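Recall that a protein's primary structure is simply its ordered list of amino acids. Everything else, from secondary elements to tertiary packing, is in principle encoded there. The following example makes that idea concrete.
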Amino acid sequence: MTFNFSKGASFDLHKVDNDDISKNAAALLVDGEKVIGVYKTVRDQIVFTTKRIIAVDIQGLTGKQQELATLPYANIQYFTIKTAGPVELLQDTYLTIYFANGMTADFEFRGRCDILEIGRNISRYALDW
């Protein structure tokens, strides 16, 4: 999967431990930037930090080639959240982020995910700008 945020992208993400961040994503972190959440698909990864979202697209058979996209919170204009219903079999939640340049990024989280915590963190760090 190649990230195409200009047309929106959707991921089937589930939470993993923050220590499971990819080496390349970790190498992008700047002084004072902290990881606040890591979510994975089968191979790809989305990392929420205190400054931005880092998307890691694992490519090729060996997975050694990676494409990384960084989405700074400073460029977020607004976002929407869709929570899961209490009796739905699939507890999927959704996050759509709208950037000042018109670009959108769509994220689909599988299973139990505290989508409101993700939204609260985005708000906390986006509003600090």
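The longest strand covers residues 52-59. The chain has one domain: 8-126.
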